[in-house]
Amino acid sequence: MDHELNITLTLGPFHFKISHKNHITPSLHDGTRNHHHHHHTKLHRKTSSLQTAATIASHASYAASRVSSRLSQHLRTLSLQSSRAMATTSSTNMPIEAPWKKQFQEHLSKMESPEFVFSSLHPAEKGSPVPYVPRARYCIHRAFWAELPENKHNTAPMNARNYASDMPTFTTDVRMSKTFEIFNTSPGHADRDSLIQGSGGGGPCEAVYWVKESMVQWRFKGDAFVIAPDIEGEGEESSGVRTVKSELGKRMRILKEDGIEEWSWKRELTGHFGNISPGMRGTFQAPPPGQPVDKPFDDKKLKLGEKVEDLEHPVARENFRVVVIRPHEVESVDLSDPKKSRRQVYKVICDFLMQVACATGVTQRNVWTEEQDLILNMLVLLQ
Fold first, then answer.
1. At a CB cut-off of 8 Å and minimum separation 6, what does 251 contact?
2. Read out DSSP for 294-350?
3. Distance (Å, whole) CA 1 – CA 22
4. I want to staple 94 with a disulfide (CB 3.0 to 4.6 A). Which of 149, 165, 219, 253 is the partner?
5. How many domains does the chain have?
6. Compositional bias (Basic residues) at which positions (predicted)?
7. Is 308 a domain residue?
8. pTM (2 decimals)?
9. Which residue, among 118, 240, 209, 232, has the nearest Cα to 172 in the 3D structure?
């Protein structure tokens, strides 16, 4: 005979469901027992089940209260806070600087050229046993988003340093395959060029930096978003623009409130265009990348090997894009000493914990934690 017990407990934002199943094998002599004895056996079983239920409920309540208490304490220690859109950001409602960033910037400053390998996923050919295949190429690290460095050669109007972030950026041409890949593997699954002309994306990616001068490899795992000329303008915002501002805004922190209402996404985009050399700007008015050299092109609109000085050059700006990598995991591998090789992994705390942090009333949030610390803390929570 099976007895099943289900208990549901609700403690604040936490819900626990405990199931207990007890199997009782009837005796071979049950049929010979008198009615009184059978009734006594049923009563004994019922009492036993009630005692079991009470015991389980007691343990469940105690365990749940410990989990709730420890989780609340853990979240407060990590200084979490719920996600927020940039438009509603305040100095007490923002992420703090990533714990890996300072060391990464120190290593980056030692590189003669801040090159890294950017990997994305490309649709596989028809008949392939897998839907996607990897694609990798070298790119140039330009800056962290909203932290464009001063450049005496950059004549573009610049935003004040109101924001900072932990999101690396690079520039690209909308006609390059990586742009399509970022959109195609995103939740929107764009499958044609007409759907990738504006801001948006969110497809998975990896970026790997090898800092030979420090003998350290850095790996960023996350998703990539594309910023296009439509990021600001008249009329209703597209869903892609709203997604970019919302998702990237969650990881932007305020450095100063003064003049923050003047900060502009479009100005930041133009600043990136001005930050590259005139020769590099000229590549954005060249024929489409990958086009056969013997294929004719519109030579009145497209030019090869020319410099662009105009920061609002219509053709170059039409093709120019900034890609922002939003990392969910950052890994550093230190190979400087073979006897002390170390790998550190930092992970963004999941949205669930951020939502719980909101319920606890925390006013600052650290969205990053080291993997080892996270594992240890979770083991404590489950004890």
1. 95, 165, 166, 167, 326, 367
2. TS---TTT--SS-----TT-HHHHHHEEEEEEEEEEEEEEE-S-GGG-EEEEEEEPP
3. 8
4. 253
5. 1
6. 34-47
7. yes
8. 0.72
9. 118
